[in-house]
Amino acid sequence: MKRLVYVITRSDCLGGAQNHIQMLSPWMINNGFEVTVIVGGSGKLINILKDKNIEVIAMKNLIRKVSPLKDIAVFIELAMKLKKLNPDIVSCHSFKAGALIRMISILGLIKKCIFTAHGWSHIKTAQGINKYLYIYLEKILNNGCKRLITVCHEDYKYCLTKGLAKKSIVETIYNGVPDIILPQQYKKRIYRKGVNLKLITISRLDEPKDPYTLLKAMNRIKDLNWDLTLIGNGNLLEGIKSFIKEAQLTTKINLIDENYEIETYLQNSDVFILSSKSEGFPRSILESMRSSLPVVASNVGGIYEAVIPGVNGELFESGDDFKLASEVKKLIENPKLIESYGKEGRLMYESNFRFEIMSNKTKDLYKEIIESN
Q1: Is residue 144 domain-shared with residue 115, that is, in the same domain?
Q2: Which H helix or E strand runs over 176?
Q3: What pTM does this model have?
Q4: DSSP assignment of 296-347, as one string?
Q5: What is the extent of the structural domain holding 104?
Q6: Same domain (yes/no): 165, 215
């Protein structure tokens, strides 16, 4: 049995990278791998993995914030744990964990390393000299990879355009999410004029996700028939609460903390919205398509590879709250679009973004790398 170790920085949030690992880990065990997850902190991801009988090693000092002295200590601790585990392959996710593991690989302290880039957000959102430093650092670190996985073709192009890695090691494997059994009443999205259009967004409430563009857009059309469920938590939460109160939107916007029953909320909604400044290939959009929801999203990262304007949703430029408001208004006034977009989104999910497609490609890649010289 081959030993696979996943390494990720944060356990305190359930973003795309965390969900990627918590879904893949049990699947890989069922397909002949011995899996261990090394994760920073002491957050909810650890309990989720343990509930799935996944071996977890928590490192409390592995944190997102850069701290040179602490990071050196974490580097040594991580190297020692990996030496003891002696994995056949290490799959690392998120910038901090990815940087440490790739350095360990460059030093020859592990056999083989894969890095999965979930959007290059640390580069795209960096300003001034920091952006160039991150690009230079990625070029060095990726010498420690046997393979670099991008989760959409846009990230693949970005990687090669910026020269972050050799083309020979870069491969795209689209994100995928497990299918669900949709109750009959949710297979067709039927919205009738005169009732509130149920909007939903699921997002970490931090700067790259830009929830304020969504709030500004909704404020523009506050007199129309809609209500919004905003699921998430983060540093911007208190500011968002203040905005909602000052804009007198408290009766129209429902704030909900991170929640495991995402499917239930999606199935009871009409349209999914995402207003991020930076993304890779967000799972929340795929989950919405899976639930036959139209998607209105900012045209960033690889979102355009899943959301086709006029087919299964609409796109707007990041920060353009006027355009976002216009697209929501259009859906309120054209109920048949909601049904049509939802149906097409579900078909696109079934063809391209099912979990089995992603997991099989990932498994085959792991085996290929383990068996290579």
Answers
A1: yes
A2: none
A3: 0.89
A4: EEE--TTGGGT--BTTTEEEE-TT-HHHHHHHHHHHHH-HHHHHHHHHHHHH
A5: 2-176+354-371
A6: no
